[in-house]
Amino acid sequence: MKGLGRLEEILQIELSMLDRLLAPENYRVWTNEKNREIQQPIKWLAQVHKRIGNLFSKIELPDYVYSQKGRSYVDNARQHIGEFPLIKTDISKFYPSTTRQMVWSMFVHQFKCANDVADILADICCFKQAHLPTGSSLSGRLAFFSAQPMFEKINKNAIDSENKMTLYVDDITLSGPNATKKKISEIRQIVREHGLKTKSSKTKTYPAEAVKSVTGTVIVGNEVKLPNSRHKKIAETRQAIQHASGPEKIKLMRSLKGRIQEAMQMDVVRI
Known about the structure:
The protein is of the alpha+beta class and 271 residues long.
């Protein structure tokens, strides 16, 4: 996209109203139960974010990405079954760490936008024109594309070392004969070189015969199973239903249905 007129046409906005679109009151900001700040676009800005997100959702993603339509976190884990070593890490504060400069660079270098078009798009997409918002429908795709050169380098590293790499949002997992502590150090260095950080607490290495925790599942040999913590939640929800009534009971039954459907995605479940 080279022209401002084309930008207005695509986003269905008038640039004369840009200051109004970027006003701080177009975000709802709160802290969730995990003590994370959520920045959610509202009103007109939410509509524009949805429009941009929908356009990005039409772009085909690399095969190693499992956080996309038609795939799930269970599918992600299934790529790593078998008695192979496994290593994993994740990007620390992925969306807030994806800066306006990174988003601008993505629009210019990967999507070949004119500089002034990229300036406006980066301002619209970023919270306070600083970083991707944590509560926007566009943040997942833009965070990936902004960091795609980094992910491509990690994937090439995995292929060259006869390992398999998958990505689920900000979770990076590699498995194979050469998934070693040295390899996870190399991966973390690649992330640092691209201006991002990994979480030490979420960086793990597993020997081939170990039970491995991957994106909300556990891998036991050639099977993907539900973690004990999720079995416990199913049992607790069933028990709570027995003592509930009215709207609360309906809410719990919906929750139980969702948990059981989630469990049914696994190869082996105890329900």
